[in-house]
Every structure is written in C-alpha cells, then in structure tokens.
C-alpha cells in the first residue's frame, strides 16, 4: 500500500511536494546574517554532494534572534527545496494536494485549483473555496436552491451514501471555515486535504462513471438500443 503523509516539520518522513515520493527529508535552519555595510548577499552551500543549498541572508539586526523562525527542507530523491515560516510551508505553494480529475467542470476545477494554491497558507480559505466548488458542481448537474437543498435534491435521485456524506462533509467544513467555531483547520490540515479527495470522488461517481457507462452502452448494437428505448417507452405509458 502506498504511504501518504503531508509535509510537516514535526515529521522526518512525508511525501515530497515536488516528486511526491514518501521518504526522509533533510532539515535546515535558515540563518539571518548581517554583512558588512548592510549589503545583502546569498551564500551557497553543498549538501550531500547535491546541488547548492541556498542560505537566506538578511540586513536585520543580529540582535533579533529569529534563528528558528525560518527553515528549509530538501528531498533526497529529486533535490526539491521547500521553505518554511515557523511550521507552515510557504514554498512551494502547491504540495501534496491531489490533482483534479479530468472530467471536473472547468468552473469547478478553477475553484479547486485556487483552493490548492492557498492551502499551505490558509487551510480555512481552501475549505471555503471547496464548499463553493461543490455548490457550483451541483448547479452544473442541474440542482437548484441553496447548498443544503441541492444536496437534498440529488440524494432523492439515488446517489450513494458515500456521495451524500461527502457532500455534507464539504458543506460542514466550508461553513465552519467562515464562521466562528471550535474547529481549528490549521491543526486539522489532513481533514482539509481529504476534502480535495472527496471532491474528486464525487466527480468520479456523478460525472466520470456516468459518462463511461453511457459510452459503453452506445457501443451496443443499434437495433438492441432501439428495442430497449421502445421497451422503456411502453413501460412509461402502461
């Protein structure tokens, strides 16, 4: 089974935000250095016989002790370097978020991508954007009303329990991300990442699976399809 772990300074192993390999990561502290005449300079250092490592400089006073405020991690598999401010990854912006499915509607995919872009900075913003993406997805499928009404309507059409639960989970997290509540999404980043998975699962069942079934169905002989259409028409009229 493939291991999955989001990047965290508290862990030595996680999935690299660049190559997504699950492996140990090199950890570094970035130093703030005051050079002569306050002239900024970038020094490079070699790590493990790989490409040069950037040491960030600063013209701030050495008396301000921010030694551990900024740090960096490096992947031994792809040499990708990530930068952190305290315990938040600030670069790369995108990391460990599953890609949107190809069949995701363009407007929904745009919101999904925006939510992915801001995740490392603000999981709350990601959660709110994913809620909006779900609402837009249900509109794409023809549902009307507020989000709760849209979910109620699509459940009546016979969607699976996992889809109903996924829709309501995204709705709950999205609502709580913009209202005062006891939930702290900065401490539950794994939950927000799973919301991305849920959106892909919903698209898979409500769009991709339906499209694939229709594609397969229309490969049947034309006469047989016409017979089925006639059968179902008679059933409606009876």
Please describe the structure with a list of short key phrases separated by commas or semicolons.
single chain, 238 residues, two-stranded antiparallel ribbon, elongated
Furnish the topology, listing elements before pairings.
Layout (H helix, E strand, L loop, with lengths): L12 E3 L6 E3 L1 E4 L13 E4 L5 E4 L14 E5 L6 E5 L2 E4 L14 H13 L4 H18 L6 H10 L4 H17 L11 H29 L4 H16 L1
Antiparallel strand pairs: 1-2, 3-6, 4-5, 6-7, 7-8
Helix pairs in contact: 1-2, 2-3, 2-4, 2-5, 3-4, 4-5
Polypeptide structure, described:
- The protein is of the alpha+beta class and 238 residues long.
- The chain has 2 domains: 13-91, no CATH class; 106-217, Four Helix Bundle (Hemerythrin (Met), subunit A).
- The chain has helices at 106-118, 123-140, 147-156, 161-177, 189-217, 222-237; strands at residues 13-15, 22-24, 26-29, 43-46, 52-55, 70-74, 81-85, 88-91.
- Strand 6 (70-74) and strand 7 form a beta hairpin.
- The N and C termini lie far apart (52 Å).
- The strands form 3 sheets. A 4-stranded antiparallel beta sheet has the order 3-6-7-8, with no helix packed on it. The protein has a two-stranded antiparallel ribbon with strand order 1-2.
- The radius of gyration is 25 Å and the shape is elongated.
């Amino acid at each position: 089974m493939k291991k999955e772990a989001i990047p965290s300074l508290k862990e030595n192993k996680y999935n690299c935000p660049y190559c997504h390999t699950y492996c140990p990561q090199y950890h570094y502290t970035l130093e703030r250095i005051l050079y002569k005449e306050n002239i900024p300079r970038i020094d490079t250092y070699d790590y493990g016989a790989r490409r040069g490592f950037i040491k960030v400089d600063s013209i701030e006073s050495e008396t301000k002790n921010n030694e551990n405020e900024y740090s960096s991690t490096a992947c031994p598999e792809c040499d990708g370097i990530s930068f952190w401010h305290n315990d938040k990854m600030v670069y790369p912006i995108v990391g460990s978020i599953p890609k949107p499915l190809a069949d995701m509607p363009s407007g929904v995919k745009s919101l999904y991508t925006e939510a992915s872009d801001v995740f490392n900075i603000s999981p709350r913003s990601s959660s709110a954007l994913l809620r909006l993406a779900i609402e837009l997805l249900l509109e794409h499928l023809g549902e009307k009303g507020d989000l709760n009404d849209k979910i109620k309507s699509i459940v009546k059409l016979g969607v699976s329990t996992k889809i109903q639960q996924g829709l309501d989970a995204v709705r709950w997290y999205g609502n709580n991300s913009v209202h005062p509540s006891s939930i702290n999404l900065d401490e539950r980043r794994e939950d927000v990442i799973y919301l991305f998975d849920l959106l892909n699962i919903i698209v898979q069942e409500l769009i991709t699976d339906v499209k694939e079934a229709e594609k397969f169905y229309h490969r049947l002989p034309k006469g047989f399809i016409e017979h089925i259409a006639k059968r179902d028409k008679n059933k409606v009229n009876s």
